[in-house]
UniProtKB/TrEMBL annotation:
Belongs to the prephenate/arogenate dehydrogenase family. Keywords: Oxidoreductase. Residues 5-287 form the Prephenate/arogenate dehydrogenase domain. Pfam families: PDH_C, PDH_N. The keyword Oxidoreductase applies. The keyword Nucleotide-binding does not apply. SUPFAM superfamilies: 6-phosphogluconate dehydrogenase C-terminal domain-like (SSF48179), NAD(P)-binding Rossmann-fold domains (SSF51735). It comes from Ruthenibacterium lactatiformans. This is Prephenate dehydrogenase. Pathway: Amino-acid biosynthesis. PROSITE patterns: PDH_ADH.
Amino acid sequence: MNKERNICIVGLGLLGGSYAMGLTDAGYTVTAVDVRPEAIRYALEKGIIAAGAVEDFAPLLAGADAVVLGLYPHALVDWLRNNQKHLKPGALLTDVCGVKSGVVEEIQGFLRPDAEFIASHPMAGKEVSGVEHADCAIFKPANFIIVPTEKNTPRGLAFARGLAETLGFAHITQLTCAEHDKMIGYVSQLTHAIAVSLMNANDNTHLAEYTGDSFRDLTRIAKINENLWSELFFLNKENLIAEIDQFSASLEGLKRALVENDETELKRLFVQSTARRRLFDKKREAR
């Protein structure tokens, strides 16, 4: 990406703030829009952004060559529909949304013809929110997914890849919207559903006094933003329900081995799980 590019971040949450931090550190001019005055104030004081606004942000959009939309899915669509008139001609836009169904097609359907929206998904995060917790180091081990459609241009795709490379993502790949949402239903949403269910399965009041690393690791993501994740789950509910059914069948198979005292089958499941995890680790280490 051209270092003279001016980039505006809309939504200074954890991801938006981390994008701003990483891009500023890389030498770009970064501005921001957020509903929280304290978020803008913090980002300015820490040198994460060069300028920011809560209201009267039209000049920031008009001066931005690229815009990163760090908003919840429904808010993103509504905000862009209402504010696209302020965009600079030729502006490139991308997002950080965890679901593309109901977002990408709608945006590309109403967006001005002189602007381009390239969907993307940084597979990174923490169990905290807000620019106050921004940390561009979260991108170093993470995957970055570009989700192109027939409406995207080589220029737009090059921008998305350049953004990921600048922020230091470990691996960059491309998926269609359908492929993305099916994959996310398994590797992200199902894992959150399991963690939430595990925490809600019984009264955990005193478990902190007895648990080890396994429970802590499995439930780390159960500390969850109910507003964001409700949106994500409902937008992708068909894929998520299918993944829950598949997981339930797998768990039922393990239970059946116990009920039937089938030691051979139980060990087979353990061996298969171990082999698949080793392959997973090997592929990550090879990147």
